[in-house]
User: Which sequence fits this backbone?
C-alpha cells in the first residue's frame, strides 16, 4: 500500500534525475553567458550531438566480439561523446561567434539560432529522421531503499552529475585558469590587462560547457533509451530556463536552477496535470523573478551612474 | 551599399516569380505534401517513400495513358498549417499537377483542404484521421485511413466488452490526432459504463514521463489507452516498467508500427493492443511483397507507408481512367473509385470521402510481432 | 526623397508592391507575398520593443496568437464581422501586452527574454489545452472571411494581399511618426541609456509599458488578418520557432530601422520558398544563410541608420551596431 510520502519521494526522485541533466546543460548556458553575454541557442544541439555520439559509440561497442566490462564501455562512450561535443562547441565558437565579438548581442543571438537550425538538420541528414534506439548496457539491478527504487543508471546519473558539478566549482574557485575565467566574466578589460588571454578563455568556456552538455547528452540517451534530432530543442529550452531561473552567469545558480526545474516539473506533472506542467514551470519562474529579478542566485548588480 | 542589397532582394524575388518552367513533355504530376523536415520528419519521409514506390511501380508498367508517365512532386509542409497552405497553393499554381497525396497531419490537411476544394483538385490523405475534415462538405477530399471516430470506439468496445475491463486511464499527446482518438475512446468507454481514473496529456517530443506514470500507478488502472504515436509510447512502456506501473496498454494506428517493438524491446512491448485499419502488410501477399521491397530500400517499413502507397494508387488509377491531365476529370474518376485493390484491403470512398468497407483490426503484440486478434466493428449508433 | 512628406515616402516605397497581383496571377506567389506582408507587420511590431526600446522579446508569437484567436472566437460565437474583429484583436493583444509588460519591465534585460519566452509558451499551451474554449489542438475552423462593401474575400489571396499592404502602409506611417515624436525619442533614450533617461525625467517604466502595448497591438492586428485568411487557427501555428523567426527578421533587417525590418521579413519569408528545390537540405541551408548574413553584416541589412538619420547626427563610421 503506497503512502502519500512514498509517492512524494518517488516523484522527487523522478524530478531529481531529469533535473541533474538539465543542470549539466544549464551550466553551459550560464558559463558562456557569464563570459560573453551570449545566449547560445545552439547549445541544445551540442547536447543532442553528445547523445548521438554516445549512441554511435554504444552501437560500436555492441558489435565487438568480446564484450568489455560495463564500466569500461561507459567511460569510453562518455569520453568519445565529450571529445566530439567539445570539438563541436569550440568549432562553433570559432566560426560563428568569434567574428561577432564586437557586434550587438542580438546579432550573435540570431547567429546562434541559425546555427541551431543548421545543426539539427545536419544531424537529421546524417543519422536520418528516425528515432534511434540507444543500446542498454547497464545491468537491470535496482537499489531498493524502502519505498524508493533507484535504478543503477539513475545512481550513475546522480554520482556523475554531482561529481562534475563539484569538480567544476573547485576548478572555477581554486585553479588559476578558473580564476582567470571569473575575472574575465567580471571585468574583461581589467582581466586583459592582467594578462588573461581572452580568446583562450572564451574557447575554454565553450569547451567546458560543451563537455558538460555532452555528458548530459550521453546520460540522457542511455537513460531514455532513444535519441531524436529534435531532443536538443526541448531540453535546451528547459535548461536555458533553468539557467536564468538560477541567475544567469552564476554557476551554482545553474545547478540549482536545473535541479529545481526538474523537481517542479515532476511535481507539477505528478500532482496537478502533466498537460499543464510546462505552464506551471514558467509561472513559477515568473513568480520567482518578480521577487528576485536577477534569478535565485543572480547578482543584483547596482548600476553605477 | 544598401541599395545594392535592396536590389539583390528584389532580384531574388523576381527570380522566384519566374521560377523554373515545368519540365516539357509527357508527364503528369501528382503532388505529395507531408512533413519532410521538422518534428515529424521521419513519418513524413515514410509517406514520401510509400508514394514514390507507387509511382515507380506504375511507371514500370508503362505510360499511364498515351505516352504520359507519372511524376511525383514532393513538398514539405513541416507540420505547420501556414506552410501547408503555401504548399497547396504551389501545387495549385502548377498546371501539370492534377491531384495531391496529402497532407499528413490533420491540422495541415484541414488548412490546405480549402485551397484544393476551391481549385477542384483531388486530395487524398494517407494519414489525417480527424473526422472534422470530411464534414466540411468538400467533394475534393478523400482519405484511405480510418477516422478517429471509428477506430477509437471500436477499441473502447473491445476493452469494455471483450476484455471486460472496468477501470482505465487515458493519455493523449495533445495533437489533433492523439487527442481526437482519446476523446472518442473516452466518450464511448464511459457510455459503456467504464470508469476512467485519469485523463492526462503529454507533449510530443518529450522524453520524461516518469512523474505522470508514477501518478497513474496510484490510480491502479487495469489498462491505459494512449492516443498518440509510437515514439512516445515506446518511452512510456520503458518508463512504466521503471516506476513499477504494471498494467495493460492499448493504442491506435499511430502506435501500430514495428518500430515500437524495436524501441521498447519485445519484452516490454509484449501484450500491447492496437487498432489498425485492415490487415498487417506482412500477411497479405501483395502487401508482403511491398513490405520486403520497402525494407530492402529504406530499412524498416515505416508508419503510414502502406497508406501512402494506396493513396497514390488511387490517384494513379484515376488518372489512368480519366486519360487526361484535366483536374476535374481526374477528380470525377477518384470519386468513382470502386474496390480498388490496395495493400490494406479494397479502397472505397463514401459520399464524404471517408474510407469505407474496411474493418478495424484489433492486434496484439505477441513474441515481438503484431498478431491479429479479431475484427471489430463499433456497434451501430456510435 | 527625404524632402517629400512622409505619406508620400511610404507610398513610394510600397507602391511597386501594389502592382504584383496585376502582373503575376500565380496563386502561390500571391499567397507567399501575403504571408510576407503579415510577417512584415509582425517584424515592424516587434521592432518597436526590440529595435526602438532595446528590450528582448522571445515570445512575440503569443500576441499574434491572441489576435488570431480573438477574432476567431468573436466571429464564431457572435458572428462579429472582420472589420470589428480587427481592432478588437489589436486591443485584446494590447491589453495582454500590458499584462505581460508589467512584471517584465522590472526585470533585467536578459531575464526579460525568459519571461517573454515563458509567456509565449504559456499562451500556446493554454490554447492547446482548453478544448472547450479554443478547440484544443484541432483549433477553430470556419472563420468568416472579410466582406468589403459587398465583396466577399475568397480563397484567392489577392484581396488579402491588398489588405495586408494597406495595413503595412498605415503601420509604417504611424511608426515613422511615432519615432520622430517625443515619445519615440524617449524610447530611443531608454534604449541607449536607461539610467540617464530617467535622470532626464523620462518615466521609463510607463514608456516601456506603452511600447509593449503598441508592439502587441500590431501583432494582434496581424493575427486577425491571419485568421481571416487561413479560416482556421490552430495552436501549432504560433510556436516558439515563429517568435524566433520574427526576431531574426528584425535583427537581420537592421534593428530600429522600419524599412530594414520590413526587408528582413521579406528576405526571411521568401528564402525558405526559394530553397525548396533543395528538399531535405532546405532548413540546413536556411540556418547556414542566417549565420552567414549575420557574420557578414552584423548590424543588419539597413541597420546603423536610424540614429544618424532620425536624430540628425553626423554619420558615424564603423560598426556601432545597434544605432
Assistant:
Amino acid at each position: 500500500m503506497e503512502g502519500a510520502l512514498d509517492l512524494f519521494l518517488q516523484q522527487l526522485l523522478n524530478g531529481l534525475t531529469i533535473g541533474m541533466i538539465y543542470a549539466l546543460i544549464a551550466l553551459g548556458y550560464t558559463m558562456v553567458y557569464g563570459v560573453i553575454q551570449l545566449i547560445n541557442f545552439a547549445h541544445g544541439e551540442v547536447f543532442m550531438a553528445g547523445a548521438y555520439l554516445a549512441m554511435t559509440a554504444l552501437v560500436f561497442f555492441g558489435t565487438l566480439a568480446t564484450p568489455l566490462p560495463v564500466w569500461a564501455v561507459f567511460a569510453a562512450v562518455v569520453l568519445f561523446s565529450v571529445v566530439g561535443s567539445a570539438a563541436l562547441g569550440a568549432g562553433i565558437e570559432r566560426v560563428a561567434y568569434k567574428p561577432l565579438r564586437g557586434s550587438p548581442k542580438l546579432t550573435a543571438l540570431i547567429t546562434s539560432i541559425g546555427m541551431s537550425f543548421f545543426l539539427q538538420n545536419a544531424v537529421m541528414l546524417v543519422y536520418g529522421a528516425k528515432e534511434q534506439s540507444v543500446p542498454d548496457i547497464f545491468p537491470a539491478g535496482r537499489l531498493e531503499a524502502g519505498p524508493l527504487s533507484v535504478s543503477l543508471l539513475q545512481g550513475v546519473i546522480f554520482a556523475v552529475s554531482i561529481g562534475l558539478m563539484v569538480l567544476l566549482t573547485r576548478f572555477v574557485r581554486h585553479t588559476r585558469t578558473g580564476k582567470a575565467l571569473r575575472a574575465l566574466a567580471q571585468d574583461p578589460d581589467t582581466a586583459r590587462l592582467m594578462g588573461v588571454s581572452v580568446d583562450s578563455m572564451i574557447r575554454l568556456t565553450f569547451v567546458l560547457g560543451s563537455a558538460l552538455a555532452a555528458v548530459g547528452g550521453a546520460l540522457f540517451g542511455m537513460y531514455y533509451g532513444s535519441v531524436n534530432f529534435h531532443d536538443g530543442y526541448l531540453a535546451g529550452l528547459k535548461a536555458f530556463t533553468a539557467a536564468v531561473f538560477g541567475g544567469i552567469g552564476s554557476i551554482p545558480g545553474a545547478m540549482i536552477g536545473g535541479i529545481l526545474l526538474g523537481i517542479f516539473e515532476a511535481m507539477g506533472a505528478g500532482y496537478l496535470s502533466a498537460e499543464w506542467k510546462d505552464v506551471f514551470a514558467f509561472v513559477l519562474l515568473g513568480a520567482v523573478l518578480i521577487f528576485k529579478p536577477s534569478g535565485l542566485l543572480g547578482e543584483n548588480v547596482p548600476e553605477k551612474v | 551599399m544598401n541599395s545594392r542589397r535592396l536590389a539583390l532582394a528584389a532580384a531574388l524575388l523576381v527570380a522566384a516569380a519566374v521560377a523554373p518552367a515545368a519540365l516539357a513533355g509527357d508527364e503528369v504530376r501528382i503532388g505529395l505534401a507531408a512533413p519532410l523536415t521538422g518534428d515529424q520528419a521521419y513519418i513524413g519521409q515514410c509517406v514520401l517513400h510509400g508514394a514514390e514506390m507507387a509511382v515507380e511501380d506504375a511507371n514500370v508498367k508503362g505510360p499511364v495513358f498515351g505516352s504520359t508517365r507519372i511524376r511525383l512532386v514532393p513538398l514539405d509542409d513541416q507540420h505547420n498549417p501556414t506552410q501547408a497552405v503555401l504548399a497547396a497553393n504551389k501545387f495549385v499554381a502548377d498546371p501539370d499537377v492534377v491531384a495531391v497525396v496529402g497532407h499528413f497531419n490533420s491540422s495541415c490537411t484541414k488548412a490546405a483542404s480549402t485551397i484544393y476544394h476551391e481549385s477542384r483538385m483531388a486530395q487524398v490523405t494517407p494519414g489525417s484521421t480527424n473526422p472534422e475534415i470530411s464534414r466540411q462538405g468538400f467533394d475534393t477530399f478523400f482519405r484511405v485511413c480510418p477516422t478517429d471516430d471509428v477506430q477509437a470506439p471500436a477499441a473502447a468496445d473491445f476493452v469494455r466488452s471483450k476484455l471486460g475491463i472496468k477501470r482505465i486511464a487515458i493519455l493523449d499527446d495533445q495533437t489533433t490526432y492523439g487527442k481526437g482518438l482519446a476523446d472518442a475512446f473516452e466518450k464511448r468507454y464511459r457510455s459503456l459504463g467504464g470508469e476512467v481514473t485519469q485523463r492526462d496529456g503529454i507533449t510530443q517530443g518529450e522524453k520524461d514521463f516518469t512523474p505522470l506514470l508514477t501518478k497513474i500507478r496510484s490510480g491502479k488502472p487495469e489498462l491505459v489507452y494512449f492516443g498518440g504515436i509510437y515514439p512516445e509510447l515506446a518511452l512510456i512502456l520503458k518508463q512504466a516498467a521503471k516506476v513499477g506501473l504494471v498494467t495493460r496498454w492499448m493504442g491506435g494506428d499511430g502506435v501500430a508500427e514495428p518500430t515500437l517493438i524495436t524501441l521498447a524491446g519485445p519484452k516490454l512491448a509484449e501484450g500491447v493492443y492496437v487498432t489498425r485499419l485492415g490487415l498487417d502488410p506482412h500477411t497479405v501477399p501483395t502487401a508482403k511483397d511491398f513490405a520486403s521491397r520497402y525494407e530492402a530500400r529504406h530499412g524498416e517499413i515505416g508508419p503510414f507507408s502502406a497508406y501512402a502507397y494506396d493513396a497514390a494508387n488511387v490517384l494513379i488509377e484515376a488518372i489512368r481512367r480519366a486519360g487526361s491531365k484535366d483536374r476535374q476529370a481526374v477528380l470525377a474518376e477518384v470519386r468513382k473509385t470502386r474496390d480498388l485493390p490496395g495493400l490494406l484491403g479494397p479502397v472505397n470512398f463514401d459520399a464524404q470521402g471517408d474510407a469505407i468497407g474496411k474493418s478495424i483490426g484489433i492486434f496484439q503484440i505477441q513474441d515481438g510481432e503484431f498478431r491479429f486478434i479479431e475484427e471489430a466493428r463499433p456497434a451501430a449508433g456510435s | 526623397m527625404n524632402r517629400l512628406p512622409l505619406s508620400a515616402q511610404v507610398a513610394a516605397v510600397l507602391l511597386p508592391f501594389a502592382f504584383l497581383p496585376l502582373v503575376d496571377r500565380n496563386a502561390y506567389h500571391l499567397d507567399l507575398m501575403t504571408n510576407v506582408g503579415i510577417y512584415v507587420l509582425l517584424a515592424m511590431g516587434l521592432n518597436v520593443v526590440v529595435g526602438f526600446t532595446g528590450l528582448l522579446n522571445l515570445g512575440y508569437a503569443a500576441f499574434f496568437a491572441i489576435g488570431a484567436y480573438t477574432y476567431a472566437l468573436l466571429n464564431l460565437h457572435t458572428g462579429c464581422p472582420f472589420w470589428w474583429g480587427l481592432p478588437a484583436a489589436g486591443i485584446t493583444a494590447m491589453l495582454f501586452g500590458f499584462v505581460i509588460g508589467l512584471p517584465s519591465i522590472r526585470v533585467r534585460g536578459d531575464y526579460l527574454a525568459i519571461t517573454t519566452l515563458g509567456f509565449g509558451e504559456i499562451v500556446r499551451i493554454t490554447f492547446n489545452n482548453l478544448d472547450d474554449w479554443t478547440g484544443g489542438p484541432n483549433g477553430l475552423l470556419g472563420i468568416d472571411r472579410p466582406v468589403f462593401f459587398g465583396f466577399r474575400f475568397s480563397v484567392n489571396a489577392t484581396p488579402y494581399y491588398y489588405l495586408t499592404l494597406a495595413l503595412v502602409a498605415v503601420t509604417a506611417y504611424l511608426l515613422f511618426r511615432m519615432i520622430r515624436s517625443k515619445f519615440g525619442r524617449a524610447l530611443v533614450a531608454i534604449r541607449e541609456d536607461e539610467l540617464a533617461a530617467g535622470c532626464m525625467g523620462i518615466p521609463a517604466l510607463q514608456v516601456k509599458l506603452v511600447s509593449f502595448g503598441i508592439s502587441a497591438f500590431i501583432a494582434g492586428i496581424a493575427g486577425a488578418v491571419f485568421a481571416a485568411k487561413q479560416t482556421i487557427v490552430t495552436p501549432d501555428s504560433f510556436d516558439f520557432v515563429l517568435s524566433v523567426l520574427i526576431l531574426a527578421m528584425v535583427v537581420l533587417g537592421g534593428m530600429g530601422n522600419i524599412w530594414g525590418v520590413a526587408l528582413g521579413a521579406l528576405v526571411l519569408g521568401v528564402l525558405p520558398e526559394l530553397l525548396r528545390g533543395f528538399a531535405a537540405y532546405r532548413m540546413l541551408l536556411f540556418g547556414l544563410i542566417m549565420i552567414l548574413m549575420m557574420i557578414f553584416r552584423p548590424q543588419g541589412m539597413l541597420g546603423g541608420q536610424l540614429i544618424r538619420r532620425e536624430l540628425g547626427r553626423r554619420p558615424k563610421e564603423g560598426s556601432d551596431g545597434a544605432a
Notes: Confidence is low (pLDDT under 50) at residues 15-24 of chain B. Chain B has two domains: 2-145+304-335, 148-278+360-376.
